[in-house]
Specification:
It is a single chain. By secondary structure, the protein is mainly α. Helix content is 71%, strand content 0%. 21% of the residues are buried.
Length: 207
């Protein structure tokens, strides 16, 4: 890590992460390189290696930031709403994920590759944010459904979080995929991130 103020270090990291995020809007994960990311920053490409050793570490940092933003929104929901019905909670949780399309895309498409190609300390930093997201959803359940059993809370968490991995590929389908499903006779019903999440949460709370 180069010498410099923590503010400069954080600013450089954010610039790199932002550049990666912009490229990911129009390019695939496999086509994005450190060189491409470097070209989109205000400093030299080789300087990136002072902060991240691989592009996977940059993507993991982007995913970590997405989790932190989601956690902040869930915490704000709890602060602003002392009580919520099952319908209201399902609505707010679904709307919070609707804003985190980037989180859902990365976790669905590239999560395993990222974790496999990152240094242990980077992976640990990410897991802190992931773990906090679990704890935050659990705190939501404890606040809004105090009569819910411990077992049911655990069932909710370990059904909902794996479910999140399938949201993006189910709600974002390209024309080639649509055509293939039609030719295969698959009755695909388009659902938005909000709709599929809301329905899942309602089912989990009902059961």
């Amino acid at each position: 890590m180069p010498k410099g103020s923590p503010e400069l270090t954080n600013a450089r990291k954010e610039e790199i992460i932002n550049a990666c995020e912009e490229l990911y809007k129009t390019m695939s994960f496999k086509d994005i390189t450190i060189k491409e990311i470097g070209n989109a920053t205000s400093f030299t490409r080789t300087a990136i290696y002072n902060y991240f050793q691989t592009k996977e570490e940059i993507f993991l940092a982007l995913l970590q930031r997405e989790y932190e933003l989601w956690i902040a929104e869930l915490s704000q929901i709890m602060k602003e709403n002392t009580t919520l019905t099952k319908d209201e909670f399902a609505d707010k949780l679904a709307r919070s994920l609707e804003k985190r399309g980037q989180l859902l895309k990365i976790m669905s498409m590239n999560h395993y590759d990222m974790e496999s190609s990152c240094r242990p300390e980077r992976l640990t930093e990410f897991k802190v944010a992931y773990g906090e997201s679990l704890h935050t959803v659990l705190r939501c359940l404890e606040q809004y459904f105090p009569d819910m059993s411990v077992a049911n809370k655990q069932n909710f968490l370990y059904t909902f979080f794996p479910f999140m991995f399938g949201i993006y590929p189910y709600t974002v389908v390209n024309e080639k995929q649509r055509t293939a499903m039609e030719e295969a006779g698959v009755n695909y019903v388009f659902m938005t991130i909000y709709e599929i999440t809301y329905n899942c949460v309602k089912c989990l709370l009902k059961n």
